[in-house]
Design goal:
Strand content: 35-45%
Helix content: 10-25%
Order of helices and strands: EEEEEEEEEHHEEEEEEEEEEEEH
Number of helices: 3
Radius of gyration: 20 Å
Structural class: mainly beta
Length: 274
């Protein structure tokens, strides 16, 4: 993971400001400023921990030019223009989705709207946990069958972009927590996402797991990195068993791959350890 710092701007300098991550569309970037500093991204206040840690995100279609600002405890303000790299997104075609799912009746639509409201509420929660700064791990390892940002065409009908990373594994495969956190949503049967769990990692950063066949925990339960959370399934709007892992910074949908080692690296290490 790239760690960069700003320097040479003024005598007080951005040299004390560090970042972990890539400045590109879909990325979650973590960082640190001197304790007591204020942070703004495009003039919007960013929540900062008491010791100066923070998270910021750049969505799928983030604009190239953005502005990062720090107001130090002594009142000095420094500004850094950011250049956000664009990404190319692939098109996926998914067939075999039932007409009941493609064109839900009014009752199903009302159910889906209720599910969406629950999910938004869980992702909008703010907590002062600092687990968002941990080195995240994959909640499950295996073949990546779907990537962030791709547009899916369901039964030849263009759908919304895909906002997660899919890992194909059999039903019953155990899913673990990628970092410490608290369960803020645990629903066994949502209309589109099936069995769904959300873990709050603090300061707006959360993980969402979709299409689960079995949930181990309930809302309010604390989890440590590596704890068992659920089992992979094929529930909701899917054609086969897999985990759909999604990463959010509040309501901004980000790419989980931006905060974990590459799957190829992890699988190679697992193979070498055998």
């Amino acid at each position: 993971m790239l760690v960069v710092s700003f320097c040479g701007l003024t005598a007080s300098s951005f040299a004390a400001v560090t970042f972990q991550g890539q400045f590109e569309q879909g990325a979650l970037v973590r960082g640190a400023v001197p304790a007591g500093s204020k942070v703004l991204l495009n003039d919007q206040a960013v929540k900062v921990t008491p010791d100066g840690q923070f998270a910021i995100g750049f969505d799928r279609d983030a604009k190239k030019d953005q502005v990062f600002k720090v107001i130090y405890p002594d009142g000095l303000t420094e500004i850094k223009p950011l250049k956000i790299a664009a990404r190319d997104y692939k098109i996926d075609r998914v067939t075999g989705i039932s007409q009941k799912i493609m064109k839900p009746d009014p009752v199903a639509q009302a159910r889906a709207a209720k599910d969406a409201k629950q999910t938004r509420a869980a992702r909008d929660l703010f907590s002062q946990q600092d687990a968002f700064m941990q080195s995240f791990i994959w909640p499950v390892t295996g073949r990546i069958s779907g990537v962030y940002g791709s547009q899916r065409i369901y039964n030849d009908v263009p759908g919304n972009p895909h906002f997660g990373v899919d890992v194909a594994r059999p039903t019953g495969t155990v899913v673990v927590a990628p970092a410490d956190g608290v369960i803020t949503l645990a629903e066994p049967d949502m209309f589109y996402s099936g069995g769904t769990v959300i873990i709050d990692h603090g300061y707006g950063v959360s993980s969402t797991f979709l299409h689960l066949s079995k949930l181990y925990l309930k809302v309010g339960d604390k989890v440590a990195q590596g704890n068992k959370v659920a089992e992979i399934g094929a529930t909701g709007r899917v054609t086969g068993p897999h985990l759909d892992w999604r990463l959010n910074w509040f309501q901004m949908r980000l790419d989980p791959v931006s905060i974990v080692p590459s799957m190829a690296t992890v699988l190679a290490a697992q193979k070498a350890a055998k």
